[in-house]
Structures are given as structure tokens and as C-alpha cells.
Amino acid sequence: MMVTIDEIAKLSKVSISTVSKALNGYTEISEKTRKRIIDIADELGYMPNATAQSLVRKRSNTVGVVYEVQYGLKNLFFSSVLEAFRKNIESKGYDILLLSHNTDSGLDYLRHCQSKNVDAVLVVSGGDNSDAIHKLYLSQLAVLTLDPAEKGPNSIFSDSYHSIKRSCKYLYDLGHKRIAFINGSYTNFIGRERLRAYLDFIHEKGLEPLYLAERSNEKYSYEEGYTTMKMIFEAYGLPEAVCSVSDLMAIGAINYLYNHGFSVPGDVSVIGFDDLQVCEIVTPKLTTIRQDYEAFGELACDTLLGMIEGKVRKIDPIIVDTEIIVRDSCRKRK
Questions:
Q1: pLDDT 10s digits, 62-90
Q2: In the CATH hierarchy, which fold is given to the domain comprising 62-158+294-320?
Q3: Distance from first CA to last CA of the chain, Å, rounded?
Q4: Is 62 helix (H, G, I), strand (E, B) or coil?
Q5: Which residues contact residue 93 at a Cβ distance below 8 angstroms, ignoring those fewer than 6 apart?
Q6: CA angle centred on 159, ends 252 and 165, rounded to 5°
Q7: CATH T-level fold of 160-291
Q8: How far apart are CA 65 and CA 99, in angstroms?
Q9: Lowest-pLDDT choice from 33-47, 59-73, 181-195
Q10: What is the pTM of this model?
Q11: Assigned CATH for 5-48
């Protein structure tokens, strides 16, 4: 049988309005009274009515998640971050409304979010500056972007520049001088930052850049890694080491090398980026840059909730540090 606030009020010997204030976090009552009421509610197994609470607070306790149909959730890093985000946001009593982003769909995300009365929106991979996405930023909603198309406010992303320089330095310190670069997208901020880091390092050390200036890889996929490695090999010959902007692309590059009679790390050292679970499964186990997707998900959750509670609609970019995870795919050059 459902416990009501009337029963809690009788046992607490306070008014129904006092119980309501205690359960909804109002500060007009003393901490001692609030604690006593909550303890009694817990003992009785009281479950708050989410709909009623949302009416009181003028919130729906729903967060919209906009992701790209083409490859947003197929990207294992994004899907891992979203799972961490989901666990964190649901633990705070919020539901998620998934909105797939396709520039050809004609869907008005702002209107859809408003019709569902969502409290905030997480945009996963802002690789496209469509009008539908742009309208979200101009609205009164709390909006946060994971891996934005351009550096700006209301965004969260890894320190790509210093991460790639760290990868290159690691390979260089192992004695490698011919370091190839498996690039990502040239159409967004994150991809361009990673290329800039590679080129800066190469120029600082006086090395030859081994990369494809005209090929932009949009999906960060195994297939793109395989093809890019093939094209680099055909253009420059065998590199001593490969710095990749994603784990799946690194694995694609490794398989191209294997298929053509080369050993990793015997002939070529390879380093990835992301630290997906697959890094522990492939042979050799992949040395990589770790993006902590659990931390990303938790930080995105806490940031959006902070924006909701504080009624803040503009925040500075949040840049997350990374670390190298050393496994078996790199070795010192003899």
C-alpha cells in the first residue's frame, strides 16, 4: 500500500505542508525537523511522486541527448561516455530523452525539447553546426556539448593538443624518428587540434611529417585507419612508429601492417587514443591515450545539473586531462 504524506505528518507531529517542504528540499524549516521527517519517510518506505515534484519545481527531471545518426553512437568512446552519463543522471532522479541528429531529418530539436519540457540538453559530438543545433544554444535551456565542432563555451572535451604531443614524445623517446600520423576529421575543432599538435611536434624536432593532408577521416573507424595506413605506406614507405587519433583506427593500421608482413611492435610501434576496452583484447595489447569516459559522464552530469540548479546558461569550456596507458604495441627502437 502506498504511503502518503498525511501518514508521515501524523507520525512526525507536524503539518502536511511542513512534510511537503521537507521532502522537496525547502529551507524554511530547521535541519533537525527536516531530518526527522525524512527518517520517518524512509522507515515507512515513502516513494515521492515524480510528476508532482516536477510540477512543484517547474521541472520535468528530463535531460535531452542529441546525437548524430551517422556515427555518434557507433563511436565506442561516445557510447561509453553516454552510458556513464546515463547512470549518473538517473541516479539523480532524471530521465533521458534521446534525439537523433540528422541534418536531413528536418526535426526541430528546440521545439521537440520544449514540448517534452526537458530541463537540459547534452549534445554528443557537435560535428555539425546545423540550424537545429544552433537554436538550442540560443534558447533558455541548459546546453552542454561533448567534443564540440568549434572551441567555445558550454563544452567539454579532452586536452587533445597536449595528448597528441605526449604520444609523439613517447614514440620519439623510444628512438623513433619516422613517426606517421593517422588523422581524424579536419572539419572540427578536435580533429584540427590533434593535427596541429602532431605537426608542431614534428617541426620542433626537425622531422619529416608523414600524414595525409587531403584526407579527412570523419568516423574514426577501423576501416579509415586501415585505409589511411595503406595510403601513408604507399606515399612514404614504412614508418618507424604510428600515432593514431583513435584506438579503432590504430587497430586498423596494425592489421594493414600485419597483412603486409610487418610486425607490431617489432617493425613499427603504434599508439592509439581513447583507451577502449578492446585495447586489452587485441594482439598486441594497445598502448594508448586514456580518455576517462566514466569521468566524462560524471562531469557532464554534474555540470548540467549545476547549470539547472544555478540557472546558469553559459559556462567556460571544460578541458579534461588524459594519460598514457603503456601496453605492448610500442617498443624501443634498436
A1: 998 988 765 566 778 888 899 999 999 99
A2: Rossmann fold (3.40.50)
A3: 74
A4: strand
A5: 50, 61
A6: 65
A7: Rossmann fold (3.40.50)
A8: 6
A9: 59-73
A10: 0.78
A11: 1.10.260.40
Domain residue limits, the chain: 5-48, 62-158+294-320, 160-291
What DSSP line would sit under 262-299, residue for residue?
A: --TTTT-EEEEEE--GGGGTSSSPPEEEEP-HHHHHHH
* Tens-place pLDDT, residues 274-287: 999 999 999 999 99
Question: What type of residue sits at position 261?
Answer: G
CA atoms within 13 A on the CB side of 152: 13
Residue with cell 526535426: 107
Nearest CA to 93 out of 41, 134, 57 is that of 57
Task: Assess contact for 304 and 312: CB atoms under 8 A.
Answer: no
Task: Report how far residue 79's alpha carbon sits from residue 77's, in angstroms, rounded to the nearest whole number.
Answer: 5
Residues 232/211, Cβ–Cβ less than 8 Å:
yes
Amino acid at 298: E
Q: Which residue in 93, 91, 188, 95 sits closest to 145, CA to CA?
A: 188
> What is the per-residue pLDDT across 121-170, written as a single tens digit (0 to 9) for each?
998 875 555 677 788 888 888 999 988 878 888 899 999 999 999 999 99
- Amino acid at the residue 146: L
C-alpha cell of residue 186: 579536419
